[in-house]
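Researcher: Going back to the complex we discussed earlier. I've cleaned up the inputs and rechecked each line, so this should be the final set. Can you rerun the prediction on the complete assembly and write out the structure?
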Amino acid sequence: MADVSKFKPKTVYVTYIDAPLEKVWRALIDPQFTRQYFFGFAIEIEPRSGGAFRLLAPDGGTHVSGEVVEWSPPHRLCVTWRVAGMKDFGELPECLVSYDIAQAGGSVQVTMTESHSWDVPDAILRGGQSGWPKILSSLKSVLETGKALSIETGMPAGFVDAVKKAVVEKPWLRSSS
Amino acid sequence: MDKVFKALADPTRRDLLDRLRAENGQTLGELCARLAMTRQAVTKHLVLLEEANLVATARRGREKLHYLNPVPINEIAERWIGKFESGRLQALSDIKRALEEGTGESR
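Model: Rerun complete. Updated structure for the full complex:
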């Protein structure tokens, strides 16, 4: 299993959702929900630490694969995350994605944290940074109104080249400072 | 949503957001070191930004790290900017940037 202490949070996003906490948890782990707000991807997850985790594209292909690092319903889910469905991307070191769910007064606070074990270039981080706010806004909309937002995928400028460069240079193999 | 607009109405707080955008995950100490402000003043601004959910924090060991959280701004955009407008607005914003960069070079 991934050595969590090596990972540093690089992107942290928070949204507040007006829905019961248990329902928010279900929306994160139920493919019926994830298909609505996560670019059409269906989650497949074994409900235990060490279990397998995948996000399946609408055509059935594996877009993301990983392992459950922490399964603590209904408050915390942490998985390793390797993007298998995009060229070159699968060769980058896996990252960690965690969701923390907490009651905050009348609403529920959802915190998404993306952590990395190496000094990821900003151009690569911007890939996640362009997607997560849309995903979280859409999750909120699905839970509060029953309707997903019409979000589009699309990678920011420089992203593909930065991934290619990293795969060639493999900066994570250098001894960390 | 009021909190977001109030938080953004102050130039120092926008500056703090810009600093986090340039370098995400800074500690209070790192943010203070680059601003000519007392620790207390920076803390006060950060609390307002956190209350508006524009800044998210993560603990790492004993450190508290601060992150720019654009989710509320995305929600504002989703509310007033439809999906067909966003393409046109992006084009306008690209033109503006290209023209402004052009002036910069000729100076």
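Model: Worth noting: The domain at 7-166 of chain A is CATH 3.30.530.20 (Alpha-D-Glucose-1,6-Bisphosphate; Chain A, domain 4).
Researcher: Good, that matches what I expected from the previous run.
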